[in-house]
Amino acid sequence: MAPEDQQPRLFDQCCLCIVCSKDLSRESAEQLATTLEEHGGEPLIVQPGAEVPNVARFSHLISNTIDFEAYDTTCDALIPVVKPQWVSNSLAKRKLANPRQYSPDPRLFMNDVVVTCGDIPEGDKDAIIGGVVAKGGLYSPRISHMVTHLVDLTADSDKARIAQAKKLNVKIVLPHWFDDCLKLGRRIDERPYTLPDPEIMHVGLDTPIPPQDNKDLVGASTTNPTKLPTPSISAHTNGQRSVFEGKTIMLSPDLGIGSHLQESIEAVLKQGGAEVTSRIDTADMLICRYREGFAYRTASRLNLDVGNLAWLYRLMTFNTYTSPLRRLLHYPVSRTGIPGFQGLKISLSNYVGEARIYLENLIAAAGAECTKTLKQENTHLITAHGTSEKCNAAKEWGLEVVNHLWLEDSYAKWKLQPASEPRYSHFPLRTNLGEVAGQTRLDRNVLERIFFPSEDTAQSPRRAMHSKDQNMVSVQAPPEKKRKIIDEASDASHGTPQTTGKSRRPIQTPARSRIMSEGKENETPSSTSSRKSKDAATARLHEIAPDIALYEKEKKRVGGVIYGGRRKSDEGRGQEKEKESKKRASVEAEDESDGDQAVEPKRQKKSRPPISMHLLITGYQKWIGKGNEKKEDADKRTLRELGIMVVQDARRCTHLAAPSILRTTKFVNALAYAPIIVSTDFITSCLKKDELLDASDFPLVDTEAEKKYNFSLSSVTSNAKKNKNKMLHGYRIYCVEDIRGGFDAFKSIVEANGGECMLFRGRLALANHSRREESHDDSEAEDEPARHEVFLLSSAGAKHGRIWPRFRQVAFDIKKTPRIVRVDWLLDMAMSQETRPADEYELTEEMIDNTDE
Fold first, then answer.
1. Which stretch of DSSP H or E encloses residue 697?
2. Going along 80-170, which residue ranges are E strands?
3. Per-residue pLDDT tens for 772-804?
4. For 423-458, how does the pLDDT look when each residue is reduced to its tens digit (9 = 90+)?
5. Does residue 550 belong to any structural domain of this protein?
6. Where is this region: Disordered (predicted)?
7. What's this model's pTM, rounded to 2 decimal places?
8. Cis previous bond, 196, omega within 30
């Protein structure tokens, strides 16, 4: 043998399985196999639809897609799945490339990107490279034919000129594209970011964003299709193997389909080479509608394919296998919906075509209600971009405005996700997010935990026997070193044990350990090293567990991990905690238990007296002004020692202290809860004598203010007790945007008295009814004459006067009488706890003061 033949070749230790698909033809697979053999590899070709034999024997699987039946088993065995480019790039590097950068997994959404950077700041450059590599892409320091994207701020940079001169197929994009992709966790279209004329830099915000077709949702937009599709060309006429060849399929009775349709489906399946069974223990696939029942739980625990009718129809239509977990509506639904989604009313904006149908059905499957129009009774608006009338209305009405990722993640995790997550409220400037709808996958671990937990049943005899068969397979002798091709006729010819159906996870390595398989670039995991890999992954997981726990904790903080996150060991963290604890000790508690712990320093062990009153204080001069914060804290601690809890929430106060009758928000809000009203002299005397005095000895007396505001302080408490916070029940009160005193202050006053207060900017229609009104019957409505009126709190300024005609118009549109009034109308009612006619407070055009501009 020649000396050069004794040199180790690159793929000498590799046994590779090439999985053919519509994107990887048999001819391409043959060429790839030849290249691998020339460099010492042992390739095996699996034709489309054929089963991959015993994945544990392979070091790598080569595929352009993750849509083959053994994918989950391969990942659990820590065997990398790579695209064909991995082979050529490994040869170019003369070492095995990192398989993670060549994964076909769509969750690594940058896996087709090779990026190089032009004249951009170093910080941006590092962030982009890190983000691209983390999401499956590659970085090249130089411009070459392999580069797909050049990040630059101008098309006149040196690298841009080289790309144009060599006529390279490179997209020159702004850094904003990577930023938006990473924020969303999805790869969006580069077109609006492409130089030399990027759309995001010159198109106005109000310019309509054209929707784009989402081909990924064809056949995946509904859970219960009503029409049998036209099957793909038969395998017998074009030589292609049927996706149903050799399968045994069970159609569950819960599908609720008629006998004629069932017969038609069975005929198509039998024509494709499948058998139809009524027994789950002999099936390879289960087609059902709901995530319940013995058949569903059994099939799921056996790791069979469990899908719904929509998934089955897609297989018939395209004759290509896809996992039922790949698309959210290809999997059976739950009868109960996601916890927390019941009662939600969700509207859609800017989604069209299949994307809109898909989201409407997904909302229904989640257990919420999808409304065609947006009203104030809605709770959420899901929008594809942030520029529309619906978006403006939702923001004015205080609704949650999110993109579809919030809904998809909630469905995939089967848990209501917080709408405050920045990812769900991010809307790229010139992108319609409908183009990336339907890319979220279901998580099998979540499904198992909630719908078919394995610990509540013993292992079935069939599963135990199957596991035994797989163990026998995994210890068989290595195959001969010659190329093998597996298809529908050759499985038996090379000694692969036949099993009915899909491989049932022969290696039960936890999926979480997959993240540990990314070590050195020249590592090639194989069946002999899987145990060592698992042990190393477990040890590494234990090692980083504290960091993971700290990361999860930091994620919950305002600002998250990136903005201001600190490690536990950071310098100064101890001092920061000490400052925070001191600050907490100075802030009054919002309830009794919090107050007992927050006001008194820990070193004081003596017991405290029970709380005898909750006191709301406003206008106390000794605490007002800069430099009096320490005195205020000390006085509050002293009052707590006397049994007085100082509160800020008017709803919790039993006593109200003020130097005189005031029109502060605290004072006016507190009156609605019928507190005992005392003078601030009560506080001064208690502090001076260091004892709890009788509050009745310090009544608030202010005859001047009573005369000015036309009410008696002595009658306010009795009126408030009769009203029970419902004085303004049935009143719908709007407020101009820049009202003096602030909208939030008037909103709190209205709501404290049982009314409904909303912002009016003059652009949008008023709601015809409110959620609060729906909760009351017709007999109550007859007793409330204000129901037929709507009020607008305004000033007489010219700026406010310009929106009065619009308010009157939209009020008449909903058959209501418009009343435009001064804020004194509301304040006088709230302070006297008596309703008053709006006539004497009403504003007209003759009263407009044009000097305010």
1. none
2. 81-82, 114-117, 138-139, 149-151
3. 444 444 434 444 555 688 999 999 888 888 889
4. 999 999 889 999 999 999 999 999 999 999 975 444
5. yes
6. 453-538, 563-611
7. 0.57
8. yes
